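Quick look at the format.
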Amino acid sequence: MTDKQTTTRRALDIEDYIDIVRRNLKWLIGPAFAGLVISTVVAFALEDTYVSEALLRIVPQQISPELIQDINAQDVAARLNGMIQNIESRTSLVNIINNFGLYKKERNKEPLQDVIDQMQKAISIKPVLGVTGGGNNNLPALQVSFRYNDRYTAQKVCEALVSRFLDSSTESSFQTQVMAQQFLQDEFDRAKRDLDGIEQKLAEFREKNAGRLPEEMQSNVSEMNALDGRLSSLAEQATRNTEQHMMLESELRIAKERLDAVKSPQNQAHNEHVAQLDREIEQLQTNIESMRDHYTEDYPGLQSAEAQLAVLKKERDKANKEKPVDTNAAAEENEMTREKLDAQSVLTQLQTSLKANELEAKQIQNATASVNAALKNYQGRIEDVPAGETVYANLLRDEAAAKDRYMQLQVKLEKASVSMDLERRKAGQTIELLDQASLPESPAAPKRAMIIPIGAVVGLALGVVFVALREIRDTSLKNLKDARLYTQLSVLGSIPLLENDVVVQRRKQMTWVSWVAATIVGIAIMAGSVLHHYLKKA
């Protein structure tokens, strides 16, 4: 078995690359020429698309807004978006398609909605910044364009779009002004009727109650408002006093528990015994009350419970009278700690604070009662006024509100009238045509000047890749450099390849014939594509 040896190829130099190109020239030129032919056929097979463009300028209001204000609620962007949506609506586009006979082939093959979507993509309405107007002022503008395969039709459709845009702008603005003025006029008439009705009622009331209208009503109301404020303040004080009282009681209970905790063990045990008897008596009393609700006095269980209750009460009274055994009183007195004294002092302070809190609560109750009495007094004064006084106050308030609304609507109606006059004179914010729809001279697509060279370059790139693959797979010796390197032998001489001249000549002729035929066919194909394209246009 023979082991295969792997030999690293030598680095190529300029001469090697020239030899590679010379050997594979036909594999480079062939794909490049094929790519040129294919790209030419594709480029001239694509349908021409022409773009007609028009430029619209947004003209601002001619009169200063400080003098006359436009009442249109929509800004420029909102108005433009609304007009664009109207123009690109289904109804509008179907009308244009039918009027100009657009997309005949597509309508025969595709649904109408797909044709409308295609036309929406062909329409372009976009803002343009930096359009110079009169006085070298930069004005906002819109560029309207339409794509189609016929340049004259593209121009006509673009003109129709511009015309619809201008008409929609004028109509939309004027309709907005009319609607605003009509709305304000209706509201103004209603406000005037309401004001006249309230004034009539007020006049009748004054005539009916002449000489009985109170003069001190306002002062009484002011005093009542002050007393209401005082009453609210007292209520807040009472709330704070209650919270303080609860806090002091809680602290007092804690202080008592602390004081009980430091008492002598004998007293603590005695008190616990009395407390236990109290709990038993309370439980037995509850049971007796429950049995009385269900049984009579003759019931044995009830009589037994009452007897037991009497025994427990005697035992508790006896325990209360007994004094706890004091085996070591002197020792307990000496062992009284500072903690007990401190607990007694805190308890005394809390009791004093609780008494002060109760005194303050009584004062607040007295003050509240006094304020309530004063309020009742003023309420009586107001109730002594004729019952129609409340109606009179309501009428005055309604008259003021109606008059204020009437004056506001009158000012707004005047502004709306001036704004409509401004719109009629075309002095408001308008859209005007800056550049007419253009007649395209050359197609915007396809870009044949880019497609054809790109096709040739792609073919040449494919040829280079193919040649590289052939060279990588070809491991034969190409020249004397390869022979010296791979055989590690000295080359004394070289014998040229000897072939039959007739065979060589015939091979060259066949090669030239093949290349000439391929070139003629490729040129014919390209010429046919170009000729077909221009004949189709004609």
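Next, a different chain entirely:
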Amino acid sequence: MSQNHPSGGDFKNRVMKNISLHLAATVFYMATRFFLPPIILSRVSLEAYGIWALCFIVVSYLGMSAFGISNVYIRYVAEYHAKGETDKINRLLSTGPAVVLALSVVILAVLWFLLPGLIVSFKVRPELHQTAFILMFGTAATFMLDLSVGAFAYVLQGLQRMTDQTKVWVVTYCIEAALIVGLLFAGLGVYSLLIAFAVRYLLAVAWYVVLCYRAIPTLELHPRHFDRSLLKLFYGYGGIIQVSGLLSTVLNSIEKVIAGAFIGVKATALFDVGEKFPIMASQIASTINAGLFPAMSHLDSRAESGEVVELYVGGSRYLNLLLGYLMGYLAAFAGPVLQVWLGRPDFRDTAAFILACFCLPYHIHVLTGPGSAFHRGVKKPARELFYPIVQGVLVAVAVLVGIRVAGKTAEMVAVTVAGAMVASALCYIAFSNRYAGVPMKRYLTTVLPLGLIPYAAGFLLRWLAQPVANIEGWGRWPTLGYVVATGLMYSGLVALFIFPLINRTERNFLRDRVWRRIRPAS
């Protein structure tokens, strides 16, 4: 078959290669980010770090202003490339960035006037107002510039060249981490984070441009290729995803917004620290979702609906297993993990409570990803609106009841938002299964147990270890030994519980791809 129409085996290998490499790169990214917060907090106050966390709440909302457009690139570049229609890719890339650039200018102008009031609403001390404005506007401007001219990254995804995109990401986030540390020790304080962030994004954009021209030698961006007829893709297909994405982004950071508005910017910092590990784990697992969307778009363009459904079920199964393994230990051993990571008992207990509360919610939230990839891949993005609407209603009701019963505390916000996240995500999974044609019985027996069993293993191990080791008052290094030891035992328990549930194909994969590589070294 031609390069645009690879054989089934070649296509599956490409999808697996894309996902595997991106997964490894994400793990490495998390490793670099693991060491940054303790270094940053040693040079920056908790309040200043809370302001930096607020920057990314603002950025996430701005990012959703072009979220639908980025998905248009991925979906339709995959389709045009599968059909060999390079001329349509030229028109798409000459139209999209022009639309986003105009939108970015308007958004940044509005943000310039709204930011002072926003800063006051988050109870930032007056002496930090200027710092907050510089950080927030600088971060937003960098991000909007990337969205305007960063379409090339999404083109690489649509071309199934995620390996190239991943390489750029790895190099640039390593440069960012090195710059943060260097500038912090140079005495630039919290501004070090903004400078490193801007350098990373500018380098990445330039690199993506070069890679796209190499992948498509006939690629040409020119005003004459601007096609007004393509606007219906951006404001039709893209617009629906836009609304869904905007609602989802608001809800994904709603606990930080509520905590900041009701309690103060320090509470926002506590949630940022407490949710760091669940978010990192969910980002690692989300690499599977990143590979599913372009793959499903490619298969749908070739009318291979059966393959799309099997990809949906298989992706959900492996995603759930990975999420359960990562989150199960974090939920059970939140306190020791934070003690090793931060070494600061002054806010460890509250942060540990938040960490434990949000493991399962982020787990189930990421597990909705294959459903969203399916809806977008088959050109039915309006179905995604079900999820944020249900979640928004549940969060509002839960928080209002929580305030009345328990008052305005960080623990109340964590419990109510976490519960609403789990309930709404489960409803959306059932909704997606219906449209994908996957019986709930099949999902409940072949997918869901793989992710829940690790939690049982984690809390069983915690119960068994408690009488043996009381870590209260332990130092950082003894606690690290405890975390390593319990982590190894946890991995063994999970393997013992999970192995009977995996099928013959998965066992053969483990034997051929994993065990035979480990055995010679043992």
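The CA atoms of residues 254 and 417 lie 8 Å apart.

See the schema section for token definitions.
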